[in-house]
Amino acid sequence: MFKTLINAFKVKDIRRKLFFTFLMLIVVRVGSILPIPGVNTDYFSTMLSNDNFSFMNAVTGGSLLNFSVFALSITPYITSSIIMQLLGIAIPKLEELQKDGEEGRKKITAITRYLTIILALVESISMVIGFGNQGLIIGYASMDTLHKVMAGAIMVTTLTAGSALLMWIGERITERGVGNGISIVLLINIVSRVPDDFATLFESFIKGQSVLKASAAIVIIAVVIVGVVILTVLLCDGERRIPVQYSNKIQGRKSYSGNSSHIPLKVNTAGVIPVIFAQSLMTFPVMIASLIGNVDYSTVGGKILLGLSSNNWFNRSNMIYTVGVILYIALNIFFAYFYTSITFNPTEVANNMKKSGGFIPGIRPGKPTSDYLTNLLNKIIFIGVIGLIIVAIIPIIFSGLFNANVSFGGTSLIIIVGVVIETIRQIESQMVVRDYKGFLSE
């Protein structure tokens, strides 16, 4: 990785792209600490600093904690992108656009942008009304209706504009930077919280301890982090290659021998989507309850909310809340199969292979190939999602048993490792394309 970056800095075009990306990320971080006018940031950060919001604080890079201009982060764009993929199955017109090449891609991108703005408006209005009624916005409760509307409109506009700006920055990084812009914006938000998390670990397990206990704590923390990173790398890079053989072709008087290729099926076919969806769904009721306020956690509903929060799992004083991990695992498995089913169609792949004269050795073309790919894919998805769950749960177990209140966990590490690997690959591919001269060049 470091060798690739060093070599990239030697190339003027790529060095300019890296510099542009760096400038854009500075803008992201400045906007993440720039508070919205009229917000009581101290009271707001105190209210949101509890464990139930650790995942959202990590994804937003602390922007939500500060209720800054970028408090919504890039999540509306990610949500709208996923919604467009899902609608592509239900709406034939969208499915046609997805297959319509460059023109279709541009239309899909435009629709995704509009949907992002709509989602950002809905989320910002909900946040302003919910938090405003709890007195988190300065003078909100004592304002008359007109001033409430004006103050709320300013905050909603600021939050929506901030989310739109992040979307624009991500797209500019993709076009003029190193690529993978939206993921890089999400990555920098998560990485920005890591120093605070290490400071928390230092305060909790190392500071004030004896040399022996401090050394043991450092070793355990290092082993957990390094082990999860290694598992994540293996999970992101692992793939099953299915051999494909193409039959001989005769064109005119010439005969062309068939070549061989392969279909790469990643072990982690759905990427980080299952853990993000599962975590978001389980965090959503907790956030709604916090917006409403005055939640009584001694009631049945309150205990269910505590069980939905991963920060209460594996707590030695209240192990009963760990039952929520069952729902978390079930959601991960469901979304892994569901998301893969809409991104990889074995029947379509089998038909395309048949049309181009390709076949899997030992498997007949057509439906037998489709059935073979489906059975194989189901096994790979199961192996991948089990690995994904292990990577996601290890930090949660460590955090719960030892009361390590940190915002980054398995989900964050998967995102970090996955985005870094993909970005390095894109930089390497750009270097290869630049150095390739072609067979006509000397």
Which features does this protein show?
two-stranded antiparallel ribbon, 3-stranded antiparallel sheet, single chain, 442 residues, disordered C terminus, 70% helix, mainly alpha, globular, 5 strands
Topology:
Layout: H1 2-9, H2 12-33, H3 41-48, H4 54-59, H5 63-66, H6 75-90, H7 92-98, H8 101-133, H9 145-176, H10 181-206, H11 211-237, E1 239-246, E2 249-251, E3 254-256, E4 260-266, H12 273-292, H13 300-308, H14 324-343, H15 346-355, E5 358-359, H16 367-402, H17 410-435
Helix pairs in contact: 2-9, 6-7, 6-8, 7-8, 8-9, 9-10, 10-17, 11-16, 11-17, 12-14, 14-16, 15-16, 16-17
Report on the architecture of this protein.
The protein has 442 residues and is mainly α. It is built from 17 helices and 5 strands. It has helices at 2-9, 12-33, 41-48, 54-59, 63-66, 75-90, 92-98, 101-133, 145-176, 181-206, 211-237, 273-292, 300-308, 324-343, 346-355, 367-402, 410-435; strands at 239-246, 249-251, 254-256, 260-266, 358-359. A 3-stranded antiparallel beta sheet has the order 4-1-5. A hairpin with a 2-residue loop joins β2 and β3. It is globular and about 80 Å long. Residues 437-442 have low confidence and may be disordered.
